[in-house]
Design goal:
heterotrimer; A mainly alpha; B mainly alpha; C mainly alpha; A: mainly alpha; 20 helices; 2 strands; globular; B: mainly alpha; Helix Hairpins
């Protein structure tokens, strides 16, 4: 059912809360004299927290269409809203601890951060290509500014420039694909587009449109060959921003990828959950995309000397793993993606949190400067090891369970070669993740001074380590929520 | 209702010019302008199809694309100025602090 | 479909041929007598001075950027204004909220000092905290 504008508002409260917070931040910025006070950070924490609570109060249900079919309210959207809001809260906490951002204007930073969050909320829920394009740009444009937030620093500005060029081009290609879809079906609602395409026989334009749309989404999730921007941006951007970009927009990108292709290209028979238009071998195409993404990510990561850049390539590889769940477009596979995103949120944000804490003390992001961290800051070193082993996917940690679900669906459906490639990739990734751990514990420190880790980051790290460990042994509730969220992905 | 074929051809040509500009040029300013040409090609396609179908949605979409393109151009130019102040060049091949 | 493209092709060929013909004929027929005055840039009758590749004040860029944004955002109001009376109160409130958000942006620019054209060194506010 389609709700009108006024009736939709009461289901739109999380977004309204964020919008109100952004406007308050603008007002606070205009009114205040002190650009470096902690007030904007606390205000955004309160705003995002309130929004998260409101997301929790939203009725899930089989799905309502808000604003005359512009955005959907369903379990899938609620899942991603909760996920991205959670990531934003952690990133706000990180940003308060970051020395890089300390002497920058605070309110503007949080305005951009919350604008991206608002964009991600809408992106996860968009069911109309107009809305989809607008929300994708709402995610992208403030991200460009966030990447270049350290304005005097060449690395940061350069990252931002590259991000703009790649981002604008990718979204331009994507919207050309949208114009083809609009031309083929005469509608902008993705459900209608799916029905319209099913009637027609025009395979070539449809394939072209799908490929162009994939460019836009592939750029958001940093899948090879649309990943070129991500290592540069991840290295150049302030570390909290890197952490944010590697989790938030990536999750939102997966949300829109899944929603778009599931709505337009999956058969209505959800139990089969296979691709329609079998004249094109979609599973093979996406399997190759997935395999290439994880292989390039892992192989290039081996030689990295900068931790942020290494984590950037590792996050490309993880996008490849997650695409495994997308290959067959079955609800079971999509459930695995959702579960992996939850796990990935904690372990990746955790790893970046430690990188920030170390950089605060040593002013360096080089792996060689992590030598002896085990004795200089044992707590941070142990936490980082947990996150890195979880990212590798070693049994007691949550990353392992995430990978098991991703592998299971591919193997069940008989795409064995992809499972083999992914397994080999995991072995390669163990090499470079373990190298950092080795440097931290087995190499002699260059300096012996203790790196202080204050109480607040220590508590935050505990909060991130806990789910990483617990989800490795007790994951039932989360996988159930993920399964429900996919089930609710209706029309 | 008009025949959209010619307009779609025009839109394809504009889009192609934009893509070639993005890929082949080195000046960041020209690249940003090429992106704008791409988006204008998209606009032509939307308006042509919308007008062919007698549906105003196409024009609405074109309006939204224009708005976003303006925002993107503003942000892109601001970053361009920042990079020019730092490096005295906007040649994209000379942005090489970051590499693998 | 294919015949339509053929028409387009004929158009393109004819158009290109016409342009080539025009330029070629005028090239052949024109008298050529360049003088310094003829070659100079036309600047509304003024005597031109300097090259056009001078550095502009950076404030031109800022004002131009601001103009682009607000210009396009305000253009969004035209469709609304055309059907305003049929849409009623709800659309009015929506447009009002839209304008309030734009005003917040304007207030921000004002505070940042981006709207002041004349700015002496002493009055320059510490922009964005780091400059």
């Amino acid at each position: 059912m389609f709700l009108g504008n006024l009736e939709s508002l009461k289901y739109f409260l999380p977004e309204l809360a964020i919008t109100a917070t952004i406007l308050l931040l603008v007002a606070a910025h205009v009114a205040s004299k002190n650009r470096r006070s902690a007030a904007p950070a606390l205000l955004s924490l309160a705003g995002v927290g309130a929004s998260l609570l409101l997301v929790g109060l939203l009725p899930g249900g089989p799905g309502t269409s808000l604003f005359e079919g512009m955005v959907a309210l369903d379990g899938f959207a609620v899942f991603f809203k909760a996920l991205t809001a959670l990531a934003t809260i952690v990133v706000v906490a990180m940003s308060m601890d970051s020395a890089e951002l300390k002497d920058k204007s605070q309110a503007e930073y949080y305005i951009f951060l919350l604008s991206v969050l608002l964009g991600m909320f809408l992106l996860a829920a968009a069911t109309d290509i107009v809305m989809l394009y607008l929300s994708l740009e709402l995610v992208s444009i403030p991200s460009y500014l966030l990447a270049g937030y350290l304005k005097g620093r060449a690395r940061s500005t350069e990252a931002s420039m590259k991000y703009v060029v790649y981002g604008a081009t990718a979204s331009g290609v994507m919207i050309y694909g949208f114009s083809l879809l609009f031309g083929l079906t005469g509608t902008t609602h993705i459900g209608e587009i799916g029905r319209g395409l099913a009637l027609g026989k025009a395979t070539l334009p449809m394939f072209l449109a799908a490929a162009m749309v994939t460019v836009g989404f592939g750029y958001k999730i940093a899948a090879v060959p649309f990943h070129m921007w991500s290592p540069d941006v991840y290295e150049g951007a302030p570390t909290p921003v890197t952490a944010f970009l590697s989790v938030g927009p990536k999750a939102a990108g997966f949300a829109v990828l899944v929603r778009f292709f599931y709505t337009v290209f999956a058969t209505p028979d959800a139990a089969a959950g296979m691709w329609k238009f079998s004249s094109v071998d979609w599973p093979l195409l996406f399997a190759v995309l997935s395999a290439v993404t994880m292989t390039v990510g892992n192989l290039v990561a081996i030689n990295q000397k900068n931790v942020k850049r290494l984590l950037a390539y590792s996050s490309i590889a993880h996008a490849g793993y997650m695409l495994m769940g997308f290959v067959l477009l079955t609800p079971v596979g999509l459930r695995a993606i959702l579960f992996y995103l939850v796990v990935y949120l904690f372990m990746n944000l955790g790893a970046f949190y430690v990188v920030i804490l170390v950089a605060n003390g040593t002013r360096s992001e080089e792996i060689s400067d992590y030598s002896g961290l085990g004795s200089r800051a044992p707590f941070a070193a142990v936490a980082l090891s947990v996150f890195l082993f979880a990212l590798t996917g070693i049994p007691p940690f949550s990353g392992f369970i995430g990978k098991v679900y991703l592998f299971a669906e591919v193997i069940n459906r008989g795409v064995y070669w992809l499972a083999v490639v992914a397994a080999l990739n995991s072995v390669v990734s163990l090499y470079y993740y373990a190298r950092i751990v080795k440097v931290m514990f087995l190499e002699d420190p260059r300096e012996s001074a203790v790196l202080p880790v204050p109480a607040f980051p220590r508590a935050m790290l505990c909060l991130l380590v806990l789910p990483t460990l617990v989800l490795g042994v007790y994951w039932e509730p989360v996988i159930r929520v993920a399964a429900d969220s996919v089930k609710l992905l209706a029309f | 209702m008009m025949e959209p074929a010619a307009y779609l051809l025009l839109s394809g040509i504009l889009f192609g010019i934009g893509v070639v500009g993005v890929v082949a040029r080195k000046n960041a300013l020209i690249i940003l302008m090429s992106v704008e040409i791409m988006l204008n090609g998209v606009n032509v396609a939307f308006i042509a199809v919308g007008s062919h179908l007698g549906d105003v949605t196409g024009s609405v979409f074109a309006f939204m694309v224009m708005t976003v393109a303006a925002a993107e151009a503003a942000v892109g130019l601001a970053i361009l100025i920042a990079i020019y102040r730092l490096k005295e060049t906007i040649d994209i091949t000379e942005l090489n602090v970051l590499k693998w | 479909m294919l015949t339509e493209f053929a028409t387009v092709l004929v158009f393109i060929v004819l158009g290109a041929a016409t342009v080539a013909l025009m330029l070629g004929v005028s090239r052949l027929l024109q008298p050529r007598n360049p003088t310094a005055v003829k070659l100079s840039t036309y600047e509304c009758g003024e005597v031109p001075f300097g090259s056009s590749w001078v550095q502009f004040n950076i404030r031109f860029y800022v004002i131009a950027l601001i103009f682009i944004i607000f210009d396009v955002e305000v253009a969004l109001l035209y469709p609304w204004a055309v059907v305003f009376q049929r849409l009623g109160l709800l659309a009015f409130v929506e447009a009002f909220i839209f304008i309030v958000i734009l005003l917040a942006g304007l207030a921000y620019l004002w505070k940042e000092g981006d709207l002041d054209w004349v700015r002496t060194m002493q009055e320059t506010p510490p922009r964005k905290g780091e400059r």
